[in-house]
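Section handout 9: paired folding examples.
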Amino acid sequence: MIGGNTPDPDKPMRSGFTTGACATAVAKGATQLLLTGVIPAQAVVSLPAGFDHSFELIEQELTNGVATCATIKDAGDDPDATHRAKIIAHVSWRDEPGMELDGGIGVGRVTKPGLPVPVGEAAINPVPRRMITEAVTQVLAEHGTARGVRVVISVPDGEEMAKKTLNSRLGILGGISILGTRGVVVPFSTSAYRASVVQAISVAQASGCEHIVLTTGGSSEKYAMKMMPELPEEAFIQMGDFVGFAIKHGKRLGMKRITLVGMPGKFAKVAQGVMMVHSKSAPVDFGFLASVARETGAGDELAQAIEEANTATQVADMMTEAGYLPYFEKLCTYACRHCLEHAGGGVTVEVVLVTMKGMELGRAEISELEDSNWSKES
């Protein structure tokens, strides 16, 4: 997610805590307040990461049979849209035994299938649900009460924060999700981003999509949506740098066609066979780009200039100015083949290369590899 913190580059990266962990803390604190009438200053939560953490509680109140506690989420140095969010729990008695959990203001509600929470329920994911249930049940047991409680989690600024996330695309409306599988936010976590990609593909599958469009970011997604207006919003998924990961999960979840839309900087790497295109993952192979240029008619002088270029975008500009537009189709073909090989076949792969302004440079499509040894020979 975007927003939140700007870490000091001279200090070690600091971890934080998930909305799920914070919701568990306030639910536990409010339950203790309801049972004892004693205002708790903190709540200790056992995190799935394997350790306990004490959360500071604020705005504790017991009024008209409703106990309230809040805490402020600290996401550490992760650029998290929910950093500094106020997480609140309201706990009250209910007639039936056990615990009822729901979301209040600022917690989204699920409106599309394909998510780990059923349609119609508050967007409180399974692990946070389990954490909250276990913490509240433990407090009830410690005080020997057989009465049940109703727990409502709210995030006053959640609806505004959700605008910085992909919640609306996933069909989560009205606020943020209460998330977290370990209780801890690791700065710039790749596992968290990968999980969001799988979730987005799952929503596309549940919405009936058999064709998804993978992009590396917001700009390329915007251009892709203009190219393919016939596709539903759920079909467009920002895969970030995780090209191979997204393709494999797209195939696993039953997609028949996968289109990738991106710019020369990252897709030149895909054409080389690099399936994780972060700037630190692998350098652009300018010798490879020069050989592709030669394949499409470029002379030795231009090819030499490509080998000495600084960026793949610079190469794209050189080839455009020189009029060698088949170069881009060839790059897309190489990218298609590598993607299809990475997926193990069984899906149609299309690659569309665009400029930073959204102009299409080239495209290619492959449904099956004619020669399984092509990559070894090329």
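Moving on to protein 2 of 2.
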Amino acid sequence: MPELFSDDFLWGASTAAHQVEGNNLNSDWWLIEQGPYGLQRSGDGLDSYHRFAEDMRLLADAGLNAYRFSIEWARIEPSPGAFSRAELAHYRRMIDTAKALGLTPVVTLHHFTHPIWFEEQGAWLGDGAVDAFVRYVEFAAQILHDVDWVCTINEPNMVAVMHGMRVRAARGEQIDPTVLASPDESIGRVLIAAHRAAVPILHNATGAKVGMTISSQAQEAAPGAEQKLAEVRYLWEDMYLEGCRGDDFVGIQAYSTQTVDQDGLVPHTPSPDNTQVGLPYRPDALGIAVRHAHRFLDGIPILVTENGIATSDDERRIAYTREALRHLGEASDEGVNVLGYLHWSAVDNFEWGHWEPTFGLIAVDRETFVRTPKSSLAWLGAVARTRTLT
């Protein structure tokens, strides 16, 4: 394979605030973890709130040139309209640290979590939800003046799944947490409206490229199910891609594939080859995902903001990532405008109620917080430096 991508291609890794920082006490997810759902607790996390510079340095030293992280709304605005300038300064220090280390910061403003007060007001279905998000974005934009990449909302389609399940549970419906429901369309519409309201604010306050990240299921039709695929994919993905039309880029996040038959989504078949989160081993999902976004949005620039595998076998992580990048490179050769590849994740983190799945390029001892880079980090850094997979 010839050299991968261009000289200014972003090679990096991603995290999310709640999954690594620790003690995010004002977050809705912190509240959920204390509830009767049998979830593990994030607790101290990886103490990345204090150790972010070490995490970034390990990525930079390996040869990567970008780091995606999120600002925590619950820290910035712990009560309605009461903003913390100290917390804003903390995230500005993260931006400055990344730049000093030669890492391009890719900043996400909403990564699944929001303040408890927002949840109590009805979350995304509450009165004034979009206005509340806009107020937060306006405040956060003060530190983004020299940031080149901003993601407004991470995976709104998955937010619509999770919050839709919570709405149904609040109505007294029986919810099976092991079965992934479809995104709640009404919640999805509000999230898209929030994104569309945030884009001009960020363009006015910064010189950043602004986009939203979409969770791609890389859905495929079973024989004869093409029409059903179109219906299912609209609710899962295309509605949200449509909300990105006209943006500077779209963030694509893909891990595995999902088959659709005449009845809808086909559950994944249990297999010893599946990943730690039960997904089939399908590194080709990334190529499927970016090609679909490219076709649907008429060639919009694509930034891969997440791709990775939950496994305890680091050689399997390298094999998966090598194959995913091969498919991404082929898509790029076909004309898909790929701007960067950000691996999920930089560190083994809190996987939304569970600590067992390990996605990271860096292992972390949760008692001592000692960081241990894995071979996959050195491998990805070498790919970034040489732009080859050999």
